[in-house]
Amino acid sequence: MAGTNVEQLEGMISSSINTAFPSEPPTEAEFDGIADKLRASLDSFCHVTDEEYEEIKRKLKINIVVKMEIGTVIIDRKRPHQSWLPARRSKYDFFFWNRYKKYLENVKHWNPRVTGNLGRVSDEIVDLLGDPESTEPFQRRGLVLGDVQSGKTANYTAICNKAADTGYRVIIILAGMMENLRQQTQERLDTEFSGRLSQYLLDPEKREIENVSVGVGRYGQEKRIESFTSVTKDFDNNILRALNLSLHSVTSPVVFVVKKNKSILNNLIRWLKNNNTNSHGIINLPMLLIDDEADNASVNTKKEDENPTAINEAIRALLALFRQASYLGITATPYANIFINPDTDDEMLREDLFPRDFIYSLAPPSNYIGADSIFGEDATFSSVLEELHPIEMDAFFPFDHKKGHPVTALPPSMKEAMAYFLLMNGIRDVRGDNKAHRSMMIHVSRFTDVQNQIRDLVSVWLSDMRDDLRSYSRLSESESSAIDNIFYLKQVWEKYGLAEKAGYCGQPMTWHHFLSKYLFIAVSPIDVRAVNQQSGSTSLNYFENRENGLRVIAVGGNSLSRGLTIEGLGVSYFYRKSLMYDTLLQMGRWFGYRPGYDDLFKIWISEKAIDWYGYITAAAEELKLEIARMKNANLTPLEFGLKVRQDPASLIVTARNKMRAGTMVKRPITVSGRLLETPRLKADATSLTSNEEVFKDFVSRLDLIGQRSPRDKAQYFWTGVAKGEVEQLLRDFKTHPWHLSFQGHALADFIRDKMGTATWDVVIAEGSDKTETYSELYCSGEVLQIKPEKRFVVASVDQISISGTKVRVGAGGASALGLTQGQKTRAEEDFRDKNPDKRHVPDSAYLIKGRSPILMLHVIYVDRIGKDKKGQIRTQIDDGVKIPDYLFAIGAGFPFTGLPEKTASYMVNAVELKNYYDPEEDNDE
């Protein structure tokens, strides 16, 4: 394959299209016309085959239609700040930004509409920073909220380029906790900001080769960015001293890329004090500090160098050294510790790093595949999920396994995932992506010794596969299929319908053609690497393999999941106990961009994790929508911080943060506009019997305490139920303490103290299966014929979890019951007006101001025989655990009350929760 010719022609077509269509994308006919003309004119010295040409057009057409919207910002307008960038724009040449923009368009093939909006977003954010030409001192604090793997680095790289263009002299990037992440960030900024390879810059023996241009450096070297760290060296004051370097010895902007580590930060502070301050102990150069993965310091760590209190003290000291400093935190979760960790609202506000000036919520490009695309209600990529089953996984990697756990074999599902990865490599070669990185992630343990054992077994498996492909792939199909490994690969090929995906112009590719021509060549370069504390930081050396692409199966734990970009991630195999939202989102390295292979990537994951991802995805999306509402209401970052603290979904992060200290925390929680349910129940017989009794007693009295008023889709519906009756039911009904967002006593107190004289609607929710009837509910002597809701459950000795419903009990939209058709229609129209890209209307949209609160009663039929697409029974009940056929659950829908929202007083008992969660789960060993 003429790789060089393909790259040249691809670059020329991309450049011509971008020049011809800067504002609107071309039609298909316009694109083909330009591309065909270029191919014909260049064919004599840049020949490509028809197959290669079709692949070039396919890839470029994907990029051409990508769009990116402007983000949303909330600002505290009472803080002293004057917009400065727009009025001064004409005086800047934007040298650094312009070469970055050219690099994105010419090398990464971004279309000009996306780079144009990236320019506008970065303009808005830089303008919110302090004015570097001002004569007044300033300390600005802001936060950028994005999505995991969504391009936050591209955004802050654009900000770095424009900060350098407009007069910032010092730029410090805090690049996570681990050296491999710091190196990855340094490499990225070498390519996209400074434009020079940094590995030689601070080596006294190799300074003669310090000006090796890379990335943006090939689009101009008239101005420089000085790097005082390199891909081989974090900050080291001895090297800078030996080279006689200081901030004042250079006239160009200086960039530092450092780990979020107490010792390194304190060394940087000492060097700055000793070599760069004036007689008043201050540095009079404008400084921008970007805290990448601002939420990355685990509050439960035992490592002193990673202690968040010590790290935040160092960051504050660093900022205080500069007369003019802007702090910009970057986070992928709204449940950031800056909002949640302080014990009180006042403490949160007093925190020096709190983003009191602004919070900017980024809008990801249209080709971003995020949590909502995979786990949301309107998920377009839900088919990528392949469920892992506890029965299989517990035989190999039980959740409670320890450091010395022996690994003697690999689960069948892991072998299938690896076989799929091998086949995917071949298909990507067919598509012409030969030099792109390809990765598979295996994350099933936090223990280094266990990870290394898995790596060794995977290596043996891969070696056997490679040997058989080398020896037998060119035999006839009948002969090669007699080889067990090759026959297994063929079965996986057929199971996942890969013939069509490997095909060309609608023609499926035969297995034999794929096997004999592509597969061995595709599999040969694949390596297996452990990524953990023992293997060091260079396990995934994508940069060193940038010419031909690294093909790797990466085995690791949290080292794989904290900010590290796993390039070309095509297959993920994930089985971890962690139920912490922020860690789950971070562990999901499969979010991001899959150019040219979004139809191929796969995720093997447990159903429990799928449920949690669905739950936190919905909660996080709701908070992001809140930013837009707050902007329209001129509310401030402080009010957003309070909103996050008062979100029911924040409670698990609160619990995790307080786990090691084992403290009790009282927290006001917003319940208005929310439907709160009981999908987690205690599994002991006493609790289950008690719930059944209080449930049935409540139903038996409904005709006496309310008025029966059947509705469309709700034959058992009552209005006018006194709040005291609902209050008592919530006090008596027992739920599992791990489901923190439903606290019956706190909600009962809220109903008693803050809901006035409001009466409740009550509905018995029903399922859609007409073959099953529950006849043991009585009301005024009448037997109620209930169609129970059929659900799968996962049950252990202490907990029953209703499964497969994104940590829900009822069907989505159930809160619409009780509204008139007109109210329902208006609520849906209002939601869709504000969220035009959403098809699914959430329950919160129906909990409109002025309606009655609604209590939902659920009779759950435990489905013990339903199977998934692999034929596995979905209900999982541990040995020795007895679960009745019918369970009882409730949900309480609280209408929106208007602003300020009323809150319930919740308690988080970290001591009790230690029985269900080990805080060490977040730390590798």
Describe this structure in words.
With 925 residues, the protein is an alpha/beta fold. It has 32 helices and 28 strands. The strands form five sheets. Strands 16, 17, 18, 19, 20, 23, 24, 25, 26 and 27 form a ten-stranded mixed beta sheet that branches. The chain has an eight-stranded mixed beta sheet with strand order 1-8-2-7-6-3-5-4. Strands 9-14-13-10-12-11 form a six-stranded parallel beta sheet. Strand 18 and strand 19 form a beta hairpin. Helix 6 crosses helix 7, helix 16 crosses helix 21 and helix 23 runs antiparallel to helix 24. The longest helix has 26 residues. The chain is globular, with a radius of gyration of 29 Å. About 1% of the residues have low confidence.
Query: DSSP strand (E) fraction?
Result: 15-25%
Specify the overall morphology: globular
Number of helices: 32
Strand tally is 28
Query: What's the rounded overall pLDDT mean?
Result: 87
In oligomeric terms, what are we looking at? single chain
CA-based gyration radius: 29 Å
Largest sheet: 10 strands, mixed
Question: What structural class do the secondary elements suggest?
Answer: alpha/beta
Helix content: 25-40%
Question: Can you tell me the residue ranges where pLDDT is under 50 for at least 5 consecutive residues?
Answer: 297-301
Cα distance, first to last residue? Answer: 45 Å
